[in-house]
């Protein structure tokens, strides 16, 4: 649809320009701005790059993370980490690679949101709604204050899911189930829990499309099959994420923070505090919806009420968008705290204000619908007003110039101590060790060490039975082989808490210490491979036999 429009080139260029405007402060500065999570995601990119450079195209271990290494690639958001690592092969600059990922996320989230809006309004309305969405305060906050690049990048896949639903349920486009599966898989790889937040819109939207339509059971059945394939294709990540999270402090309890709800001032205050409470290094971490968006939402409620009273025509998308907005506001308030506490999946969101990731779509959608009949001068005036208010906020604070090596070795766990392994202590309290292997009991010599990200080999000459330490935090999957034979690993000695230790008998031996896939990870990899194979087979079958159309075609009634 986008490429068929006469003004598609203009819209494409316009969206590219406003994406560049959104990221220009990052791109023009060589350092990293002070953000809460930015250094963590920069380090993820560096650690993935390091592992991939050594031939580990599916990293599972980060040897330079948290002093003695952590299985961060198993739990870290995949899309932005892999994308940043791949870009770094070409750009050779971790910060610039990170910034390009932000630019890519900004551009495609706008392109796909524009395409979604075009399903429900004209070019002018979609144009204006996309412009407002681009500079939503929470989007700005996610990049320039929080540094939450995975949550920001998730905005690429949410409108794609909505487009796929529309194209399948309403227009019966045969590519739509495949797009749906790819979008669901992409969202889960980018930020799994964002699917829970976006479900507040996805489910009612699907219901809207289904209303008064024919052949819904087969359509939903096919969509369900492709949804399962989309989830299964990323099983290599999702299954270990949920099953092995129990080995981290994070997995031992509910991490919901009940005091992180929003108040009235978060919805009406136009302030952008440079300093806020204890935020000194970073810009003020004040969550707000935006005064422009609040006014649009309030006026939309009034217009809806008037239309209902006078029984005027109401666009169906408005009928679900306003209630979803009200529900989202409720979910950011203190009144929703019991729901977060008693519904486990909701509690994993951690911060009630994270529901703003859903709310930032509400006012742009409403504006896009209501502005479709505006003249071009009013649209231009509104764009100027938005630009004057929001463009000055597109800046980072306290840019720092740090050596690249900072991202390839960290003493602390940048994800926080809640993501330390449960049998370890604070990683910064362990002494930094230049050499991985060390003899801690007995006499012997270590020769011909070969150290890599997730494996190492040593030649040991022991004059008696010796005890060895490998300064690596143990996690299921680490194995030690002596002359090719597996040996027992100990990791609960309080003098070497959580660190790999093992015994080597007297004599000359070759030792291999290697991080391997557990049964859970091997099963997860198999699920992904089988799902992708099934996905490919379905694509080939559909191309040749056109089975999807036949499955949803109404059966002729027999007389």
UniProtKB/TrEMBL annotation:
Q: Which InterPro entries match?
A: Membrane_prot_PTPS-rel_domain
Q: What are the residue boundaries of the Membrane protein 6-pyruvoyl-tetrahydropterin synthase-related domain, all occurrences included?
A: 82-391
Query: Transmembrane: present as a keyword of the record?
Result: yes
The record ties this protein, via Pfam families, to: PTPS_related
Q: Kindly indicate where the leader peptide sits in this chain.
A: none
Q: What highest taxon heads this organism's lineage?
A: Bacteria
Q: Does the keyword Calcium apply?
A: no
Residue stretches spanning the membrane? 9-28, 95-117, 148-169, 175-208, 220-239, 286-309, 316-340, 352-370, 377-395, 522-541
The alphabetical list of record keywords is: Membrane, Transmembrane, Transmembrane helix
Name used for this protein in its record: Membrane protein 6-pyruvoyl-tetrahydropterin synthase-related domain-containing protein
Source organism of the structure: Candidatus Roizmanbacteria bacterium CG_4_10_14_0_8_um_filter_39_9
């Amino acid at each position: 649809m986008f490429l068929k429009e006469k003004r598609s080139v203009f819209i494409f260029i316009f969206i590219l320009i406003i994406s560049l405007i959104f990221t220009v402060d990052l791109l023009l500065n060589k350092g990293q701005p002070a953000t809460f999570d930015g250094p963590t995601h920069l380090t993820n990119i560096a650690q993935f790059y390091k592992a991939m450079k050594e031939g580990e195209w599916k990293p599972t271990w980060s040897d330079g993370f948290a002093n003695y290494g952590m299985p961060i690639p198993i739990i870290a958001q995949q899309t932005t980490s892999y994308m940043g690592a791949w870009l770094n092969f070409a750009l050779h600059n971790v910060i610039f690679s990170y910034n390009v990922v932000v630019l890519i996320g900004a551009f495609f989230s706008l392109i796909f949101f524009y395409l979604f809006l075009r399903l429900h309004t004209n070019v002018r309305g979609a144009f204006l709604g996309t412009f407002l969405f681009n500079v939503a305060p929470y989007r700005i906050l996610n990049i320039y204050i929080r540094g939450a690049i995975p949550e920001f990048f998730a905005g690429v896949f949410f409108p794609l899911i909505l487009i796929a639903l529309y194209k399948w349920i309403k227009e019966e486009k045969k590519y739509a189930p495949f797009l749906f599966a790819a979008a669901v898989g992409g969202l889960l790889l980018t930020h799994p829990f964002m699917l829970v937040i976006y479900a507040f819109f996805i489910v009612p939207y699907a219901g809207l499309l289904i209303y008064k339509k024919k052949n819904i059971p087969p359509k939903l059945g096919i969509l369900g099959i492709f949804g399962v394939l989309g989830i299964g294709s990323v099983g290599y990540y999702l299954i270990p994420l949920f099953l092995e999270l129990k080995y981290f402090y994070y997995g031992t309890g509910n991490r919901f923070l009940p005091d992180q709800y929003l108040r009235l001032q978060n919805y009406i205050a136009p302030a952008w505090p440079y300093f806020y409470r204890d935020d000194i290094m970073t810009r003020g971490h004040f969550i707000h919806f935006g005064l422009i968006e609040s006014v649009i939402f309030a006026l939309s409620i009034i217009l809806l009420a008037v239309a209902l009273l006078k029984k005027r025509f109401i666009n169906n998308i408005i009928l679900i968008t306003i209630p979803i907005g009200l529900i989202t506001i409720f979910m950011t308030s203190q009144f929703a705290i019991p729901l977060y506490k008693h519904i486990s999946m909701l509690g994993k969101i951690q911060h009630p204000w994270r529901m703003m990731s859903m709310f930032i779509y509400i006012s742009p959608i409403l504006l896009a619908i209501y502005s479709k009949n505006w003249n071009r001068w009013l649209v231009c005036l509104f764009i100027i007003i938005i630009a004057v208010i929001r463009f000055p906020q597109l800046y980072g604070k306290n840019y720092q110039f740090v050596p690249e090596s900072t991202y390839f070795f960290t003493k602390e766990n940048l994800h926080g101590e809640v993501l330390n392994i449960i049998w370890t202590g604070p990683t910064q309290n362990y002494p930094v060790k230049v050499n991985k292997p060390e003899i801690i009991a007995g006499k012997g010599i270590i020769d011909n060490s070969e150290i890599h990200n997730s494996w190492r080999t040593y030649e040991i000459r022991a004059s008696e039975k010796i005890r060895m330490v490998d300064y690596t935090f143990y996690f299921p999957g680490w194995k030690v082989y002596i002359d090719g034979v597996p040996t027992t690993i100990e990791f609960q000695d309080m003098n070497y808490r959580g660190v790999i230790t093992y015994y080597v008998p007297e004599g000359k031996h070759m030792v291999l210490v290697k991080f391997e896939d557990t049964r859970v990870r091997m099963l997860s990899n198999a699920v992904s491979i089988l799902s992708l194979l099934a996905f490919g087979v379905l694509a080939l079958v559909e191309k040749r036999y056109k089975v999807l159309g036949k499955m949803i075609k109404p059966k002729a009634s027999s007389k």
